[in-house]
Amino acid sequence: MRVLGAAVLIMESMIMGFALLLAGKGQSSLVIAFGAVIAVLFIVAGGMLKSRIGWILGSLLQIAAIGFGAFVTPMYFLGVLFGGLWICAIVVGRKGEAARAALLAGEGSQ
Questions:
Q1: pTM to 2 decimals?
Q2: Whether the Cβ atoms of residue 66 and residue 75 lie closer than 8 Å to each other
Q3: How far is CA 47 from CA 8, 23, 61, 65, in A?
Q4: Where are the domains of the chain?
Q5: pLDDT value of residue 32
Q6: Among positive and negative, which fits the CA dihedral 14, 75, 66, 23?
């Protein structure tokens, strides 16, 4: 679950970097600083996925990425796309952990 979540967050950090290139043309320095903070926080959240706080921060950052669409319009679409990938990482990761736990429990009974 952590590997999938971290992959989504790191890729989203890169996407925010590209969005900052687009924002640099006509946005204020405050908007660029806001986007840079979001991009850095994606990396931080990816490293914090061992704890529950990392997952909460990652979820909040999904909302921030969608909100950045107010300044860079394609981020509406990309934010929703990566938000879906974030949800899939959580769901698939939980299923994978449950399957692994069942497999380990089966090996221990033999």
A1: 0.86
A2: yes
A3: 12, 26, 14, 18
A4: 2-108
A5: 93
A6: positive
